[in-house]
Amino acid sequence: MISTVTTTTFMTVTTATAAVIGGLSLLAIVTLLGMLISKEVVGVGEQPRMKALSYALNVVIIPLLLGFILIAAIKVVEVLR
Fold this sequence. Notes:
Blueprint: H1 2-43, H2 48-80
Helix pairs in contact: 1-2
């Protein structure tokens, strides 16, 4: 009885965790896309304020880009298994 409950609990938690991670991955990718578009739009401006905003967007884009690379690497590893 205990092993059945433990196995069921483990499978439920694993499935729920995978769903949450998948949702967060999608959110991170959409956010990265939005920030990259914003940087392109802002980067066209010649005003110092636009350049400062473009630099500030780099602070957001770089961690999201690293997260995207990690997500892509995990997906590739999953496919190759």
